[in-house]
């Protein structure tokens, strides 16, 4: 196998995930290259988190493969982490009754070589490894701005800091690729800007990033490339400019068919009739909704 420095850190090929009759992710190809920040966007229920779950071995894809630096990964979370992919969760998953530092140390365990006996006997090798792990964990807390909270129980952290702690814990496994699932959800604008800086800093230290977000300003500021998932399929992929100006993306977010799509003519007629019936402008509101990604979707994901 040839692995060059320019080969992708992530190669997802034809990833498909079906739940019974529902195809949540359909034949998605996606590469992430070293040094890149790639965005994954799409309306609620588009399959973004399911795709992450396929990448990290939490789900075994119905079809397709996931490779890290050219090597196909077995769909087992601990092997995926060991290979070099770390993630955070849309629904924060911290050990609530452990301290901030302990949470990061848990994330470190895949990179410590000390075995069970060494840990039980607490020999010099174990103590050295433990000290090194602590030092690294503290470094990561400094990096994420949580060092002064090292001894706090994680459940006592404000929401925004819990999200940062998830990032610190993910970084503890020294990943070559970090997957972030809605890292700014629930954050205020200031916290969101700080997270943006943090993601740039992570990339600058050599970890490629694939990030799911509904905050479009965050995504378009941050990402070198953006892929758009709609109903489980990759609809568009390109630079922020390309994605922003693609009418299919806007249509997908607004839930309206785009020109040439099935039902477009009928939708245009309804729209025209509605415009005639009401005097209020809806364009600004829907545009704003699209920016925040808060548009509703149909329950069946169609
Ligand atoms: N374990 C599961 N079993 C059955 N259906 C599932 C499962 N996980 C996800 N789905 C379905 O797959 C589809 C995609 O869900 P997913 O959570 O991946 O969307 P998403 O793009 O992350 O949405 P959001 O932006 O709301 O987080 C949805 O219809 C969801 O109900
Ligand atoms: Mg999701």
TrEMBL record:
Q: Which domain of life is it from?
A: Bacteria
Q: Which UniProt keywords apply?
A: ATP-binding, Nucleotide-binding, Transport
Gene Ontology CC, one term = plasma membrane
Q: Which PANTHER family match?
A: AMINO ACID ABC TRANSPORTER ATP-BINDING PROTEIN, CONSERVED COMPONENT OF ABC TRANSPORTER FOR NATURAL AMINO ACIDS-RELATED
Would the keyword Transmembrane helix turn up in this protein's UniProt record? no
Q: Determine if Iron-sulfur is one of this entry's keywords.
A: no
Q: Which GO terms describe its biological process?
A: D-alanine transmembrane transport; L-alanine transport; L-isoleucine import across plasma membrane; L-valine import across plasma membrane
Which GO-annotated molecular functions does the record name? ATP binding; ATP hydrolysis activity; L-isoleucine transmembrane transporter activity; L-phenylalanine transmembrane transporter activity; L-valine transmembrane transporter activity
Extent of the signal sequence: none
* Residue numbers spanned by region Disordered: 262-302
Which InterPro entries does the entry mention? AAA+_ATPase, ABC_AA/LPS_Transport, ABC_transporter-like_ATP-bd, BCA_ABC_TP_C, P-loop_NTPase
What is the protein named?
Answer: ABC transporter ATP-binding protein
Q: Where is the composition biased (Low complexity)?
A: 273-286
List the source organism. Streptomyces rapamycinicus (strain ATCC 29253 / DSM 41530 / NRRL 5491 / AYB-994)
Give all residue intervals belonging to the ABC transporter domain. Answer: 10-256
């Amino acid at each position: 196998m040839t692995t060059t420095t320019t080969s992708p850190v992530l190669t997802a090929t034809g990833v498909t995930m079906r739940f019974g009759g529902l195809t949540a992710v359909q034949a998605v190809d996606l590469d992430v290259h070293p040094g890149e920040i790639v965005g994954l966007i799409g309306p609620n229920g588009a399959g973004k988190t399911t795709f992450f779950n396929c990448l990290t071995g939490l789900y075994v894809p119905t079809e397709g493969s996931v490779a890290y630096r050219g090597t196909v990964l077995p769909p087992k979370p601990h092997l995926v982490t060991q290979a070099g992919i770390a993630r955070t969760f849309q629904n924060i998953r911290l050990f609530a009754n452990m301290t901030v530092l302990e949470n990061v140390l848990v994330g470190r365990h895949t990179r410590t070589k000390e075995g069970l006996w060494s840990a039980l006997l607490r020999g010099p090798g174990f103590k050295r490894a433990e000290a090194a792990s602590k030092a690294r964990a503290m470094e990561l807390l400094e990096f994420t701005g949580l060092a002064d909270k090292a001894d706090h129980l994680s459940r006592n952290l404000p929401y925004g800091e819990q999200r940062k702690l998830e990032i610190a814990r993910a970084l503890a496994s020294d990943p070559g690729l970090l997957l972030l699932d809605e890292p700014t959800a629930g954050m205020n604008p200031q916290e969101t800007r700080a997270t943006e800086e943090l993601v740039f800093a992570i990339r600058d230290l050599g970890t490629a990033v694939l990030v799911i977000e509904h905050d479009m300003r965050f995504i378009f500021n941050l990402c070198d490339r953006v892929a758009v998932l709609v109903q489980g399929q990759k609809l568009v992929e390109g630079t922020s400019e390309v994605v922003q100006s693609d009418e299919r993306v806007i249509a997908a977010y607004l839930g309206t068919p785009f020109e040439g799509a099935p039902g477009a003519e009928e939708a245009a007629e309804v729209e025209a009739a509605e415009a005639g019936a009401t005097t209020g402008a809806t364009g600004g509101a829907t545009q704003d909704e699209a920016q925040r990604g808060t548009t509703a979707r149909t329950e069946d994901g169609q």
